[in-house]
Design brief:
482 residues; alpha+beta; 4-stranded mixed beta sheet; elongated; disordered N terminus
């Protein structure tokens, strides 16, 4: 070792001098996130100027240092009101000055003490202390012995759950025969919060302190057992998932070597082909591709994968680009109407006017034709005749008895077995994107205990134009989309 090492490293004999007396005025060093118990051996990294000065002053005198915990670890320069009153008189066993100006010190707790007065506060904390004597007895009663045995068993359980228990640790726990020393040893090795550890060290009576440690150990045993259970379950789940993943990858690799596709890859490829053949709009295609990527990453047996499959099936089966060509011949339409319906001249004329406007301007967003009349007068058959005259598909939707708007709008995909609404289902059934929709029994839509204002309005209107005997009416709407 060179001369520089001799200057920087100060070694102290670790054996305590039984004749040594602890001075009542000592340099004090506040620490942030640890509580030092009696007989506890702890290395400390010190960087604050006052703390470094306190260690150097202790080394220059008798190596005794009063170590106490500050209340808020975030305070850089704590004052007397931010420091606990009760701490531990410690002895510096070794000190090493680091190149960055910090100091590494190995300290050992000697005795508990309480701050009586601050003698100095500026460059270094120097305090007057009062030693706290703990009662010790050679005769341990049955209750104390039972409590000590319980603490040892809890400590062994915790160390076993953490995987840190050894025979040497068990021997140390067994060799301690004083409740106070056992409480300090166990508390110093528990992962306690600062306020909990400080509460333990401030209990003077050894039996009460051991009882407090026993309560903390019981909580720690429960937490450690739960943590071990969670880790075991997670490990088992990860192992199962990894095993399933490796098996699937092996199956895929075997299929690739054979020039085949496994079921999942084949399903994804089929969906890709169907999406391409469907010739969807850009927005619909982007959503379909997104859902297909989600399906590819899901477990094939999960409930959500069935929802995504149903959604993709509807997306690829809708007639996005399939439509029928309108053939509007007014004379032929008139003959079709006359052939299927006798009379109803005003209604036929209105239908022919509607078709004539559609023929002159095919891009118009034409009005909705509304047919009102008693059941059986031919409202639905008129709609079918209009579809035949225009060479379009015909879809009839009965709205009577519908109580939930989701049946028309469609169910949310958060539910298993969710389906689109009646209109989307009609488009799929028709096989073209421009069928003629006949929405039948609109007046019965939403009739419940709150009444049906639509039906009352239609009845009032029909009574003003028909004999009083025709009180039963029905309403249908005809929609011819572009």
């Amino acid at each position: 070792m060179g001369e520089t090492d001799k200057d920087d490293l100060i070694s102290i004999i670790e054996e305590d001098d039984p004749e040594a007396t602890i001075p009542m005025v000592l340099p004090m060093m506040p620490v942030r996130d640890v509580v030092i118990f009696t007989d506890m051996l702890l290395p400390l990294f010190v960087g604050r100027e006052k703390s470094v000065n306190a260690i150097e002053e202790a080394i220059a005198k008798d190596r005794y240092l009063f170590v106490v915990t500050q209340k808020d670890p975030g305070v850089e320069n704590p004052g007397p009101e931010e420091i606990y009153q009760l701490g531990t008189v410690s002895r510096i066993l070794r000190m090493l000055k680091l190149p960055d100006g910090r100091v590494k010190a190995l300290v050992q707790g000697i005795a508990k003490a309480r701050i009586v007065k601050y003698v100095r506060k500026r460059s270094v904390f120097r305090v007057r202390i009062e030693l706290i004597e703990e009662p010790e007895s050679d005769d341990i009663d049955i209750e104390s012995e039972a409590l000590m045995r319980n603490v040892r068993e809890y400590s062994e359980k915790i160390l076993t759950l953490r995987g840190e228990y050894t025979s040497e640790v068990g021997s140390i726990l067994t060799s301690i025969d004083q409740p106070g020393r056992l409480a300090d040893l166990v508390a110093s090795n528990l992962r306690l919060k600062i306020d909990e550890a400080q509460a333990v060290i401030e209990i003077i009576d050894p039996f009460q302190r051991l009882k407090k440690v026993n309560d903390l150990l019981f909580r720690e045993v429960e937490l450690s057992a739960m943590q071990a259970k969670i880790q075991s379950e997670v490990k088992d789940e990860i192992s199962k998932s990894q095993k399933d993943y490796f098996l699937r990858e092996q199956v895929r690799a075997i299929h690739r070597e054979l020039g085949e596709l496994d079921e999942r890859s084949q399903e994804v490829e089929e969906y890709k082909g169907k999406i391409k053949r469907a010739r969807m709009p850009q927005a619909a295609k982007a959503e379909a591709d997104k859902q297909l990527r989600r399906l590819e990453q899901m477990h094939p047996d999960s409930a959500e994968s069935s929802v995504v499959r149903t959604y993709l099936d509807w997306m690829v089966e809708l007639p996005w680009s399939k439509s029928t060509t309108d053939v509007i011949d007014i004379k032929k339409a008139k003959s079709v109407l006359d052939q299927d319906h006798f009379g109803l001249e005003r209604i036929k004329d209105r239908i022919l006017e509607f078709l004539s406007v559609r023929k002159l301007n095919a891009n118009t967003k034409g009005p909705i034709l509304c047919f009102v009349g008693p059941p059986g007068v031919g409202k639905t058959s008129l709609g079918r005749a209009i579809a035949n005259a225009m060479k379009r598909k015909f879809i009839r939707i009965s709205l009577g008895g519908i109580r939930d708007e989701a049946e028309i709008r469609g169910h949310r995909r958060t539910y298993i077995g969710a389906l689109p609404g009646r209109i989307i289902q009609g488009l799929k059934q028709a096989g073209s994107n421009n069928p003629v929709f006949m929405m039948d029994e609109i007046d019965k839509l939403g009739a419940d205990f709150r009444g049906d204002p639509h039906r009352r309005c239609w009845r009032r209107w029909i009574r003003s134009r028909t004999p009083s005997s025709a009180t039963t009416t029905s309403t249908s709407a005809l929609i011819c989309p572009r």
